[in-house]
Amino acid sequence: MVSCPSFSAWSTGYPGLGAWDGDGDGDGEKNLMEYALNRDPTVKDQGGFELGGQSNNQPIVVYTRRLPPRDVSYWIERCSNLINSVWDTNGFSEIRAVDDGNGLTETVTMQDGMPVTNTVPRFYRLKVTQP
After folding, report:
1. pLDDT computed for residue 16 by the predictor
2. Fewer CB within 10 Å of terminal CB in the chain, N or C?
3. What would the mean pLDDT of 16-39 be, rounded to a whole number?
4. Of the listed ranges 20-24, 60-64, 88-92, the one predicted with least confidence
5. Rounded to whole angstroms, how far apart are CA atoms 86 and 78?
6. DSSP, residue by residue, 31-79
7. In CATH, what number is assigned to the domain containing residue 55?
8. Taking the model in full, what pTM does it have?
9. Count of CB atoms within 10 A of residue 4's CB?
10. Are the CB atoms for 72 and 36 separated by under 8 Å?
11. Distances (CA, A) of 50 to 3, 60, 63, 64, 112
12. Which domain holds residue 111?
């Protein structure tokens, strides 16, 4: 497995921690997610993905994404039941992507095409994979 670039020097003495599926800082986020969100994989942190309210009764999701060319893929997923989770990626549309000015990332705003109802709960997550 290829090591996370930010970990290359630090992880030499800790086999496995520098792998994409490792979590060297113990914050619950794998190194691939830390890389995709441009976070330091050696510092416990959170953020990079949040619910941003609603527009026309449709939830808005905001996340950080690397600028092109990208070596990771991003998906917003939703489900209505965390016990028997069936995650769905259909119906999301990108409203805007604003360059963060750091030469590495942009802030992406997505809208869920499925309106909110009072009868069905909804849970969201950001999924990141290597192509």
Report:
1. 58
2. C
3. 82
4. 20-24
5. 8
6. HHHHHHTT--TTS----SEEEEEEETTEEEEEEEEEPSSPSSEEEEEEE
7. 2.60.40
8. 0.81
9. 22
10. yes
11. 27, 9, 6, 10, 13
12. 49-129
